[in-house]
Amino acid sequence: MNNYPISAIKSDHKSGKRVSAKKKYSSTGRKKGRKKKRVSRNLPHWLVRGLALVLIVLFCVFFYHFFIRPYAYRWKPCYGNKEYGVCMPSGYQVHGIDISHYQGKIDWKKLAKYQSPDYPLLFVFIKATEGGSLCDKAFQKNFKSARQHGFIRGAYHYFNPETSAAKQAKLFIHWVKLDGKDLPPVLDVEKIGGQSKESLVKAVKIWLNMVEAYYGVKPIIYTSYKFKTKYLSDSLFNAYPYWIAHYYVDSVEYKGQWKFWQHTDVGSIPGVEENVDLNIFNGTLTELENMTIRKNISARMQ
């Protein structure tokens, strides 16, 4: 008898071909054609809907907090007089604006001509410099045009807490040539950066001292009342005129002394392409004129 391995042979009755029995099994030992059952991993419908609802609620809260709530004032009813596209604070006589290159090209003739009888725009603060090396590209033209069209003008510096205060003061002095009819220079302090409160106070003092020594008049400090209370609470700063930024309120909540109030950043004025900040002076026109450098120095010398 021959000892050869025997393979089971089965005839395929349909095709007439012989099929080896070994081919009926896969490498795993299972018969071909038998499918492995899949385990469903789908989440229950109620859980999917619950997660979707939570995500929608979180998105709505986020959107409201960051995009609606800060501008809710725009939907508040105006119970006073409305001018320049906003509800104007009542009880103030002298109004003005502050501008930079962000306002685009300004039609100064149109701006000077359009004067609301109840809210005349009489003064303009113009951004001059920022940090230790930047001069606003529209400053020279705007500063000259403001004088030509009869506005009481002022210039401000945007303070960078990460840059040498002395370097920033020198930059402002280099670019800004004030005369006796101009308002005192302004230091715009809005950020603390990575500095400590003590470092910020020290830097601000350096800028104020250098600029005061050069122009002979105490500069104006611009910031929000919260920032001043938190970071510039040193009693030394109370000796400087304060320009408060406090939007979307009917009256100033700050209890200290202040000279200017920036009450909105969405004013709409003919002659100015973009929205503009609106300000009021806490006093009469004569008192504003007495704040100019010449009058200010004369008063100090008496």
Fold-level CATH name of the domain at 93-301: TIM Barrel
CATH architecture of the domain at 93-301: Alpha-Beta Barrel
The first-level CATH class name of the domain at 93-301:
Alpha Beta
Please state the overall shape, judged from the principal axes of the Cα atoms. Answer: globular
- The secondary-structure class comes to alpha/beta
| Total helical elements | 8
Query: In what order do the strands lie side by side in the largest sheet?
Result: 5-6-8-9-10-11-12-13
Q: What does it look like?
A:
This protein is globular. Strand 3 and strand 4 form a beta hairpin. By secondary structure, it is of the alpha/beta class. It contains 8 helices and 13 strands. The strands form 3 sheets. An 8-stranded mixed β-barrel has the order 5-6-8-9-10-11-12-13. Strands 1-2 form a two-stranded antiparallel sheet. Strands 3-4 form a two-stranded antiparallel sheet. The chain has a domain of 209 residues: Glycosidases (TIM Barrel), CATH 3.20.20. 30% of the residues are buried.
